Amino acid sequence: MSLQRYMAAVTCAVFISTGAVSGQDQIKAVGDEVTFRPTNINPPFTSIIWKHRSGSDVIKAIEWDIDDGFSIPNPRFKDITTLDNTTGHINITNLTLIHSGVYTIDINSKEQEKRFTLKVEKPVPKPETEIERISNPDVVNLRCRYSETIIWKNAAGKTLNGSKNHLPGEFITVENTRNQTNFYTCTLKNDVSEKTSDRVYERDLFKGEDVKNTADSVPVFIFPQIFLLVIVCVF
Ligand SMILES: *[C@@H]1O[C@H](CO)[C@@H](O)[C@H](O)[C@H]1NC(C)=O
Ligand SMILES: *[C@@H]1O[C@H](CO)[C@@H](O)[C@H](O)[C@H]1NC(C)=O
Ligand SMILES: *[C@@H]1O[C@H](CO)[C@@H](O)[C@H](O)[C@H]1NC(C)=O
Ligand SMILES: *[C@@H]1O[C@H](CO)[C@@H](O)[C@H](O)[C@H]1NC(C)=O
Ligand SMILES: *[C@@H]1O[C@H](CO)[C@@H](O)[C@H](O)[C@H]1NC(C)=O
Question: Whose C-alpha lies nearest to ligand 2, atom 10?
Answer without folding.
Answer: 94
